[in-house]
């Protein structure tokens, strides 16, 4: 195996060895973790003969998951980022490092660095985070933006936020939309039809407003389909259960907790609609996955979501309860509109695949390796 820019047999040009740091996949089942898993898999499948992908993770998952969060964070910041990761770069004789989430790296690394930053919520919406988390993560994000040769953004909205909040010029960033390989299953969930909301339960997901819209629609119509809330508990006092009780929705709301990806595909395919009205998104996997599964989408006109859904979803003001309720009501009473949205959604989802995401990422690797004086090629 060729490594570190040495010549291959037969005089072939050296391979570009790219380390893809995927530790986020050990701790995050959704969002960043999913991206880390899927992009590494897709890169390995799509890499041409002159690029070699080397996955790098922060040790064994079982040992690290047993640590208390505070212990892990300190180890990540004081040991892994500044000490262990540079040693791994040297041992693997890498030519380029891609961090799939910001890592606290030291200055002066021997190879160019590409970092994916999905959002800048820590700066744009500080009220969504605890003071300690905000302080620590802001340092990581600033360090990543400053020490990376190039930054990948998962949407145009995020690229603009990077320029605004982290002073990353657009000539040092690229937009590579994420993807999905999810398809509509041949077997759908039997039983009642329902509305669906997917995402970690945290303030940004705007769930109290979704519940208020459901209550308003119930007041208009007398009854509404149940709402399934699929997502693990995140952080912050979202008050979902209290809102359910206050709004008289105990019979209409089902709290499912974390749902594995295979089960999600079934839930999407049998749902009347996905109601996804986050206050902001760096990308928004649920909207794309729902479209791929043939589920109509009601999405917020906020953050990246208009980019992701294109003309395939109903866009609403995420703070307008009446508008959200009206959008849900239209889908429930207009089957032709719902079917048209299903068809447009499938078309839109086919344009956003992990294969396309990997190819766009590989193009960035080539450009960075060619331009950087630190590349060993």
Briefly summarize what is shown.
The chain is of the alpha/beta class and 377 residues long. The chain has helices at residues 24-27, 32-46, 61-65, 69-91, 121-124, 131-147, 156-166, 207-221, 240-246, 261-270, 285-292, 305-309, 321-333, 335-350, 354-371, and strands at 16-21, 51-56, 96-99, 113-117, 150-153, 173-175, 194-198, 227-230, 253-257, 271-276, 297-300, 314-316.
* Radius of gyration, whole Å: 22 Å
What separation lies between the terminal Cα atoms? 15 Å
What's the CATH architecture name of the largest domain? 3-Layer(aba) Sandwich
Give the strand line-up of the largest sheet: 2-1-3-4-5-6
Structural class by sheet pairing and helices: alpha/beta
Poorly predicted tracts of residues? none
Order of secondary-structure elements: EHHEHHEEHHEHEEHEHEHEHEHEHHH
| Mean pLDDT over the full residue set | 88
* Structural shape: globular
Which percent range describes the beta-strand content? 5-15%
CATH topological fold name of the largest domain: Rossmann fold
Give the proportion of residues in helices. 40-55%
